[in-house]
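pasting for ref
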Amino acid sequence: MRLFSSPHRWWLLLPVLLPLALAGGHTLLWGWMGGQIEQAFAAWAEARRAQGWTIDHGPPERGGWPFAATLRLPEVRFVGAAGTVPGGLEWHAETLTLRVMLPNITELEVEPEGFQRLRLGEAEAPFIADRMVAVLALEPGVPPRDGRFAAERLRIGLAGAALEVRATTGRFEARMSATEAEPALLVALEARDIRLPVAGPLGRTISLLQTEVAMTGPVPGGRQPTRRAATWRDAGGTLDLRSLAMRWGDVALEGAATLALDDQLQPMGAGTLRLTGASEGLAALASAGAVSARSVLAAQAMVAFMAQPGPEGGPPQIDVPLTLENRTLAIARIPLTRLARLIWPGDVGAP
């Protein structure tokens, strides 16, 4: 039986054939992309294991049809190689999903879900978020060099005593081939509505915390952190705190600084700090019993002497210099605190 009386009417099948061809092509792309994700992750994990990392996870599962190609990894556990972080690095998540949204194959979404735990040295923090995702730019043959990050309702700590952040965003740029004075790594973070486990002298909520940090190159290779740090220092490497902003109650803070490593591989540097609402902050500290009333009176007199009118008739501001030398942090040349020694792997320096 002939469908059409004339062979020239084959085009009447286009409304049926075209959707079938598109669906078939999409299915092939979905299957190919799922295989690429699984192979790329396996190659990355094998390379990390060769460097001394421990990477464990349950059986991988492909999915995401029809809008994405995904690879779901249950019970993920990463343990950094010796020397990756002083004291060790370990991260665990209930589930890790790798996702490419189709037909866009230039970005990879990395989404951990459920309860997570991060250990850096002796510090350990359990955390969970309503949603947490990192988006990495994909380039053939090279590790991701750009990416962004977002988390909603991030809770850090145990229930009932957790620090909660309503919204967190961030981005990074990495250029391992950077030359001297060029940023090899740039990280920017912003957190809004940080609710503390207990109220501090300025209230329980920090409305804004914002920072941008750049590490200049070149970044030396090798697996020995102490040697790499010394090489980076000798090549003129710096850590530039390009901006820091915080709003907590009536107090606002802005700052910038440049840090490097001294001959003992300890942080040193200088910067500036701008305070708005210093008088209100001092009054809050006195009300909370954090400082004595006598100290507050002396500090408020200094604030009144140093304060400058704010822009466009805004509240008074104070600009003060900061220095870090021989592990001592000073404000306006007045020693404030002495920092603990930074211990590098294999470092047996003085206490």
